[in-house]
Amino acid sequence: KVLRTLRNHWKKTTFGVCLLSWGGNWLYGKHCDNLLRRAACQEAQAFGNQLIPSSMPLKKATVFLNPAACKGKARNLFEKNAAPILHLSGLDVTVVKTDYEGQAKKLLELMENTDLIIIAGGDGTVQEVITGLLRRADEAVFSKIPIGFIPLGKTCTLSHTLYPETTNQVQHITNAALAILKGETVPLDVLQIKGEKEQPVFAVTGLRWGSYRDAGVKVSKYWYLGPLKTKAAHFFSTFKDWPQKHQAALLYLGPTERPPEEPEEKLSRPPLYVRLYRRLRLYWSSPPKEIPQEVTPEDWEEVNVSTIELSIATRNRQLDLMRTEDFMDICIEADTVSKGQFVDRGSQKMRDPLLCPEGSQCIQASRCILQLPEGTEGFFGIDNEEHEAMPVEVKLLPRKLRFFCDPQMREQMLRAAVQ
């Protein structure tokens, strides 16, 4: 009777089987996520159970959380996956939630001493925090504080450098939180982008200016087209004046040699009699004569730019811990692109925004000045955040900040550098 009933109502049977299969798969996924959280919490508890001297204070960690990231889901993701790990580790955690865009910059100006800075959000949150940090008057001291990044935003470019690739969001977040506890750090370059009047903006990924960036911003407007929305956004953007050329003048300086890394260990303080002897010797000795040093003129090179898109990027994506020169990559793409190539390449640019295709002019520079013609409209994309296009000076700050990373990723970087 059961088989006969299922055969007679085969549509309802098919729908029920599909629904039960989907529900079972969903429940199994939730169970696997709970197992990942439990394992991460047990690993974090091992750090919290370590004995410390009574005279040593707890490490203070300040978390800057952007609840609006990931379409408003960032707060829930942080509280379920990252917050228990941080609290179980024995850190003195202070969570600062931002309410509006740009608030993190102002909060960084008021931040007191802390041992760790943790950014919980996406690329925009990272840019706000490091900009507020490096705008401080005492940035030389605060820039030495290690920074942790918990990827919660829609775009988290930096996470591809710091953590292993995974398709499971829960595992990705827990790996990032555990990497902070393990203490391994890598130095990352920072770009200082300064306009004529405004305060400088700092970026860890790069700057984009061109047609691919403008079309990529409009992809979300075509959500109703599903998987075709990316091609549709780039196709409709070709209805404007074609070819789309961006004119500018670029002045740049070549790469600079990397100085030796300073030792982290502090030298012991000399005895009192040695310090007194040195002060007396300096007091009675005659002041040394200053020898004028010849200032060598900077060798600027100039390029007239006519491109469909220009990008200025750090080397943080292909991080090389052993390289001997510091530079940023400038990619000037050719302006002779057909509409079909533009649509196809636009899809590639959505996956890798800083892709430099064949036929592009690639320049390695430590500093550059981008001069735009008067009346130029449009926007820059600085770490995937929009800023008004204007003449800017971009300066590389090599190894300016230290970010926590997964120990396996650091070993891979060192192994690749040796090979």
TrEMBL record:
| SMART domains for the chain | DAGKc (SM00046)
Report the pathway entry: Glycerolipid metabolism; Lipid metabolism; glycerolipid metabolism
Q: Which GO terms describe its biological process?
A: ceramide biosynthetic process; glycerolipid metabolic process; sphingosine biosynthetic process
Output a single Gene Ontology CC term carried by this record. Answer: mitochondrial inner membrane
Q: How does it sit in the membrane?
A: Peripheral membrane protein
Note the SUPFAM superfamilies from the entry.
Answer: NAD kinase/diacylglycerol kinase-like (SSF111331)
Instruction: State the InterPro entries in the record.
Output: AGK_C, ATP-NAD_kinase_N, Diacylglycerol_kinase_cat_dom, Lipid_Phosphate_FormReg, NAD/diacylglycerol_kinase_sf
Q: What reactions does this protein catalyze? A: 1,2-di-(9Z-octadecenoyl)-sn-glycerol + ATP = 1,2-di-(9Z-octadecenoyl)-sn-glycero-3-phosphate + ADP + H(+); a monoacylglycerol + ATP = a monoacyl-sn-glycero-3-phosphate + ADP + H(+); N-(hexanoyl)sphing-4-enine + ATP = N-hexanoylsphing-4-enine 1-phosphate + ADP + H(+); a 1-acyl-sn-glycerol + ATP = a 1-acyl-sn-glycero-3-phosphate + ADP + H(+)
Query: What are the DAGKc domain coordinates in residue numbering?
Result: 56-197
Tell me where it resides. Mitochondrion inner membrane; Mitochondrion intermembrane space
Swiss-Prot/TrEMBL cofactor(s): Mg(2+)
The UniProt entry lists the main location of this chain as mitochondrion
One GO MF term attached to the UniProt entry: ceramide kinase activity
* UniProt EC number: 2.7.1.107, 2.7.1.138, 2.7.1.94
Keywords of this entry:
ATP-binding, Kinase, Lipid metabolism, Membrane, Mitochondrion, Mitochondrion inner membrane, Nucleotide-binding, Transferase
Q: Which Pfam families match?
A: AGK_C (PF19712), DAGK_cat (PF00781)
CDD domains given for it?
GATase1
The family annotation for this protein states: Belongs to the AGK family.
Q: What is this protein called?
A: Acylglycerol kinase, mitochondrial
Its source organism is: Galbula dea
Its ancestry begins with:
Eukaryota, Metazoa, Chordata, Craniata, Vertebrata
What gene does the UniProt entry assign to this protein?
Agk
